[in-house]
Amino acid sequence: MAGNWKMNLAPDAGAALLAQLLPLVxxxxxxxxxxxxxxxxxxxxxxxxxxxxxxxxxxxNCHWEDSGAFTGEVAPGMLLTIGCQWVILGxxxxxxxxxxxxxxxxxxTKAALAAGLRPIVCIGETLEERDAExxxxxxxxxxxxxxxxLSSEQLASVSVAYEPVWAIGTGRTATPEQAQEVHGLIRGxxxxxxxxxxxxxxxxxxxxxxxxxxxAELMRQIDIDGGLIGGASLKAADFAAIANAARDVAG
Length: 251
Ligand code: PEP
Description:
Layout: E1 2-4, H1 11-25, E2 35-37, H2 43-50, E3 56-59, H3 76-82, E4 86-89, H4 92-98, H5 102-115, E5 118-123, H6 127-131, H7 135-146, H8 152-155, E6 159-162, H9 176-194, H10 196-201, E7 203-207, H11 215-219, E8 226-229, H12 236-250
Parallel strand pairs: 1-2, 1-8, 2-3, 3-4, 4-5, 5-6, 6-7, 7-8
The structure holds phosphoenolpyruvate.
């Protein structure tokens, strides 16, 4: 269960949220990986607030080079140094507003893995693509290109997040059946490309208006292994309720 804070919560506000969150998820972390992904400038404060807890830390993007003339970018190794274990890559807002491509996502994914970070690779169709019945082509195309060239061993460190763009921040969640259908397609393609063990082991997270009142039903779907939570991760009680729902389903 990863919380994507997006461009919210400056260092003090982030640390305050974590102080509320940690006791609420203390039980869940035994059964579920709980991760928060603050903006870059809040990572340090969040790492300090998370000391001694089982909640993980992730960033919202990284570059593919180790260092150099790439103004505004952050290298995977820098994130590792600051205490991150995870990094979100290819979020639809990065694709939509900042021109990120599948090829860029692939380079970032390989660089993150090489540095020792665990990438959460986001894929998902727009409403127009769904209405045009192109979900399978779009989502599996993003998956293939985003993970191209990875080994089955590397896939074990990757989490795939299926996030239908029309469900992000809209309050409009995919039904459990709609989400399961696409998660099943994703796992099937991973099975073809990487083999049974890798496909069975990989986590496929759902993202798109996941909330305390729909998390359990989504998590009960056979191919939904977790969530990527935007808006609801900004409220400690809501994010904790989602993590605890995942714990209950897992247990
Ligand atoms: C997200 O941005 O990854 C996301 C799923 O957002 P929200 O939960 O707000 O729809």
